[in-house]
Amino acid sequence: MSVKSRLFVCGAVTVLGLGTTGCHEAMGVGPEPAYEGCATDENWATIDDYITSARVQTGSVSAPAFTGLQNGMSLPSSAAPTFKFQPSATLAGTPNGDATCPQFQPARRAGIGVAHLAAVSGQVYDLHFDVGGAQGYRVLTTRQSASVPLTTWQSWKGKSVTLTLYTARLLNNDVKEGPFQAPALSVTVTP
């Protein structure tokens, strides 16, 4: 089922008053991610559609890049780090990204994650944290940074965490460029 079909089915279920149980699970793969900045569940469904249908580009000069993070680093469990990234290795971007939307005004608040808001146009990042081969946490954001809740981060003490970063340039929730995948990085959370 395509992304637009899933959105239509979930919307129809809501309009008919049948409840939306299962709509969010049907929209993307795995547990619903955290949303930051302008990112929405529609972006989750769109990016997952590209990931599951093997349409993500790897090895591209347009792939996003982590900043200040190297493969094999050890990071302390005492404080959840903020992971920073940029649109590509050669394009620095801006900390709050380039997407604008009514629900995210950086001067007023850090951003919220609610569903079915205005369509997103701009760069969207999808950061996966995998622990022991399973998804441990995921963040969709239009900002160029993301973190993990401290309790989640501390639950990974002594474990290796693989970070996979995707980005796509959207226009009204539709992919215009990408998605692109950065090379995965592994870090160890030290006690």
Can you describe what's shown?
This protein has helices spanning 3-15, 23-27, 41-52, 150-154, and strands at 34-36, 57-58, 65-67, 74-76, 82-86, 122-131, 134-141, 145-147, 160-171, 174-181, 185-190. It is of the alpha/beta class. Residues 1-26 and 108-115 have low confidence and may be disordered. Strand 9 and strand 10 form a beta hairpin. The longest helix is centred in the first third of the chain and has 13 residues, at 3-15. Strands 1, 2, 4, 6, 7, 9, 10 and 11 form an 8-stranded mixed β-sheet that branches. A 3-stranded antiparallel β-sheet has the order 3-5-8, with no helix packed on it. It has one domain: Immunoglobulins (Immunoglobulin-like, Sandwich), CATH 2.60.40.
Q: Which helices and strands, and how do they pair?
A:
Elements: H1 3-15, H2 23-27, E1 34-36, H3 41-52, E2 57-58, E3 65-67, E4 74-76, E5 82-86, E6 122-131, E7 134-141, E8 145-147, H4 150-154, E9 160-171, E10 174-181, E11 185-190
Parallel strand pairs: 1-7, 2-10, 4-11
Antiparallel strand pairs: 3-5, 5-8, 6-7, 6-9, 9-10, 9-11
Quick gist of this model?
The protein is α/β, with parallel strands linked by helices.
List keywords for this structure.
single chain; alpha/beta; Immunoglobulin-like; 8-stranded mixed sheet; globular
